[in-house]
């Protein structure tokens, strides 16, 4: 479940940058948001592979 908490932490950190980018027009926040989204995508893929491996072990 620690990976789930990593996902939640990434989403929580993303919220502030998304707000700054969309509501305040801060372009640097947009760059940070894109990086965080890429990290989230990478983590999600790792979790998918882990789930698949555990499922196939049974």
UniProtKB/TrEMBL annotation:
<protein>
    <recommendedName>
        <fullName>Histone H1-like protein Hc1</fullName>
    </recommendedName>
</protein>
<dbReference type="GO" id="GO:0003677">
    <property type="term" value="F:DNA binding"/>
</dbReference>
<dbReference type="Pfam" id="PF07432">
    <property type="entry name" value="Hc1"/>
</dbReference>
<comment type="function">
    <text>Might have a role analogous to that of eukaryotic histone proteins.</text>
</comment>
<comment type="similarity">
    <text>Belongs to the histone H1/H5 family. HCT subfamily.</text>
</comment>
<dbReference type="InterPro" id="IPR010886">
    <property type="entry name" value="Hc1"/>
</dbReference>
<dbReference type="GO" id="GO:0030527">
    <property type="term" value="F:structural constituent of chromatin"/>
</dbReference>
